[in-house]
Amino acid sequence: MKLLRSFLIVYLLILSPACALPYINLENPSTYLLKKDISIDEAINNPSFSKVNLQYSDMRNLDNRNFWIKIPMSNNNVQQLEKSIIFFWYNAKLDLYYVKHNQILKHSSLYDQDRTGFVFDNFIISPNETLTLYVKSNEKKGYDVFKSIKIVNQEKTFSVISTDKSYFDNGFFFGILISIFFFNLIVFFSIKEKSLGYYCLVLLPPTLYCSPDIVVLLEWLNFSNKNIIVLFNIFFPALHIITFLLFTKYFFETENNYLWVDKFINISLLFSLILNIYNFIFDHYSYIIAALILPFFFMVGIVNLKKDFTVSVLYIISSAFIYYPFIFYFSSFDIKFFDTYLNKGTYINNMQVTNTIAAILLCFSIYIRLSKLFYEKLSFQKELLAKSRLAAMGEMIASIAHQWRQPLNNVSTTLANIEMTSELQMLSHEKLKTKVHEANTQIKYMSNTINDFLNFFSTKKEERVFLLKSAVESAMVLLRTPFKQEQISLHVKSDESTIIGCKNELIQVLTILMSNAKDALKTKEDKQIWITIKNKEIFIEDNAEGIDLEIIEKIFDPYFSTKKEKNGTGLGLYMAKIIIEKNIGGSLHVKNSKKGAKFIIDLSHVN
């Protein structure tokens, strides 16, 4: 019930104002439409004109461009009115007849031959005079786009034209949308986030709609009038709806978080696809799917409110802005909420404004969500790094124990020798001095071993210049015992390459890669590892016959391990890649050589 109440509140807040506000636009006259190709005399006496709120949606089905528009005009003032009628109508070819008492007072011909997107005509109405303007739309070459008709005072003609064209026809909103589109497209190719890719596709139809030269481009590409109509009225809206459904699916990860939402999206995608195939085959433009699924988008946002309030609110508002043109301009509803503020009265203009606002809001919501994902991923990587270091610590403690065993035996033997020699009264000063030196040598060795491991596990990230071969040597010291046990031959060839960075981090990566090679060589008799340092690149190669091509692309994934039966965590190579690429600034990749696997640490771009 709480969910239902929340949904109704949002529904009322967003849709109720749109339904309640009247259509307020004094500059747009009442219009009547007659879809017949007849003469002016027949038009004057024809009673079949039907009243329409003339807009893009009324014109979209008129494949035959020969039709009539009737506009009644009257002057109830005591002064004559000097007016201009402006047709924002791309590629318009019109005949205007000013009629009084069935008599033609004036005839004008208008043709947007230069494709400016508007034509206009001046006229005068005397005091207390009533005129009827009959506008004949004639067949012409190329595709025409109707936007609106305005009647204004003559002195305001060019002001109204320049205002309309400065924002809507000169690419103001197109510039905003195309900038957002390419910015997010670049980000998508950088991070490969699916929802971002679908967001770019969501932006594509309104961006093309807003292009001031889209029709010119399509005509230049030899698109027929029919194909342009199909593109604008079927393909673009279908792409808009389908891509927004897919964006919702991946943005909220419905498959994992909201299974019922995911099922509904899949059904809506199928229904939308079938409906648009029907529209294409039968040349019918129905956008009922947009009206049906808008409340669903609100519901998805509401369901996600507890999880992420800000992102959900931005998504809900964006949905309302995106689908406003579809519902209130491609449907039979005669509601003009935005006309109150925009005073434009056209689908294309409103789509530019609403979709630009929606694009900006969605961009913010995506940024917020990606920021959270980034910090979650960063936290996850730190947690994995800690686990990896703990796992390495366990191995190193075992190695310390092994490395100390022999020195401790030697110290014990030396002390026993001193005791026995003393009891036999054969302990001379020189002999005692020699034995003490031997014991101190063993103790120093043990102390150095401890220092090596303390340096390795140090949390201090001191960046300094160091030789790459010194990091390799430190890693070899840490792994000498297990390598000796496994009878692995290690071959090192190095130049004098240096970098500025945290040496311990590189040592950790080297120990991971060398340990990985050691594990791969367990079943081999001849065990060889080659380490080559050349021009700030470190090559670690073994002769274990390489990595299976089916899994070579996955070995850097977290928790992916080929040695689960040997308690492999699947974190080592993942952490090695994170450390090299995120912390040090290099790159780490692997390939198969003739001998086996070859890991390449590229530090050429590190100072």
UniProtKB/TrEMBL annotation:
SMART domains cross-referenced by the UniProt entry:
HATPase_c (SM00387), HisKA (SM00388)
One of the Pfam families matching this protein, by short name? HisKA
Q: Which domain of life is it from?
A: Bacteria
List the GO molecular function terms. ATP binding; phosphorelay sensor kinase activity
Q: Please list every transmembrane segment annotated in the UniProt record, as residue ranges.
A: 171-189, 196-218, 230-252, 264-281, 287-305, 312-331, 351-370
Q: Where is the Histidine kinase domain?
A: 399-607
| EC number assigned by the record | 2.7.13.3
Q: Which UniProt keywords apply?
A: ATP-binding, Kinase, Membrane, Nucleotide-binding, Phosphoprotein, Transferase, Transmembrane, Transmembrane helix, Two-component regulatory system
**InterPro entries the UniProt entry points to:** 7TMR_DISM_rcpt_extracell_dom1, HATPase_C_sf, HATPase_dom, His_kinase_dom, HisK_dim/P_dom, HisK_dim/P_sf, Sig_transdc_His_kin-like_C
Q: What class of enzyme is it?
A: transferase
UniProt keyword Kinase present: yes
For this protein, the record's PANTHER family field holds: PEROXIDE STRESS-ACTIVATED HISTIDINE KINASE MAK3, SENSOR HISTIDINE KINASE
Q: What is this protein called?
A: histidine kinase
Q: Does the keyword Transport apply?
A: no
Reactions catalysed, as given in the entry: ATP + protein L-histidine = ADP + protein N-phospho-L-histidine
